[in-house]
Amino acid sequence: MPEHLSERIQLNNRIEMPWFGLGVYKAENGDEVVQAVQTALRVGYRLIDTASFYGNEEGVGKAIRDSGIPREEVFVTTKVWNDDQGYESTLKAFEESREKLGFDQIDLYLIHWPVRDKYLETWKALEKLYHDGKVRAIGVSNFQIHHLKELMKHSETRPAVNQVEFHPRLTQKELLEFCNEHQIRLQAWSPLMRGEILDHETIQEIAKKHGKSPAQIILRWDLQNGVSTIPKSVREERIKSNADLFDFKLSPDDMKKIDSLNQDRRIGPNPDDF
């Protein structure tokens, strides 16, 4: 369990990734995303998660360069979008992302969604990028157990990370267990369920008990489940508050109560239908 914001976890290829980071989905390219990333870096975040689909890779790169923090201290994730999947098109999309970010090397490159009949070829392109040293680690996003099994059957390299929708209404226990068993780090997107779960009486009650916000309770629950988490925000006070997770611990009873809120309910698309 991480004890402070800068703590890192070792991935299955021995690269270290921070447990906690900032997601920038829907942050507008330009001042909005630059300010959000710079705020996060000032607070102590060292993981920034973007994607070609978000349209803000330039702003993320600029914010990191202008921060004065050495590039090697900031872990940057981006993703290949569905329209660009396939072997050659993925290699081309990667170069475009790398150019927009302005970095020689990307820390983690993910397949954004498991596009049927495409993701195996896309993965071969990611393996090439990894073997060529252009990325430090490769992984996937929104992959179910059957996608992961199929991928591992046809590839040399196991994904280092699987980034999925994960929150108290979608606890994905079987997927978490499978990923742990195969040394694939699960990472939560939309951990706060776009705010929907924050008013739930169980979360409110646990928050009151610990003197913490409902968001802090849920993000702490992620970490205690061994799940890396990347809540998104562009607001300075929220970015600071989201990271204030390391001076309390949820009890086993707290964890069970939050687990019991599961309804297998998604707010994003189902990867099998997307």
UniProtKB/TrEMBL annotation:
Site (Lowers pKa of active site Tyr): K79
Residue ranges, compositional bias (Basic and acidic residues): 255-267
Residue ranges of the region described as Disordered: 255-274
Residues involved in substrate binding: H112
Domain named NADP-dependent oxidoreductase: residues: 27-262
Molecular function GO labels: oxidoreductase activity, acting on the CH-OH group of donors, NAD or NADP as acceptor
Active site: Y54
The keyword Transcription belongs to this UniProt entry's keyword annotation: no
Keywords of the record: NADP, Oxidoreductase
InterPro entries: AKR (IPR020471), AKR5G (IPR044500), Aldo/ket_reductase_CS (IPR018170), NAD(P)_OxRdtase_dom_sf (IPR036812), NADP_OxRdtase_dom (IPR023210)
Pfam families documented for this protein: Aldo_ket_red (PF00248)
Similarity-based family: Belongs to the aldo/keto reductase family.
Protein's UniProt name: Aldo/keto reductase
Organism: Melghirimyces algeriensis
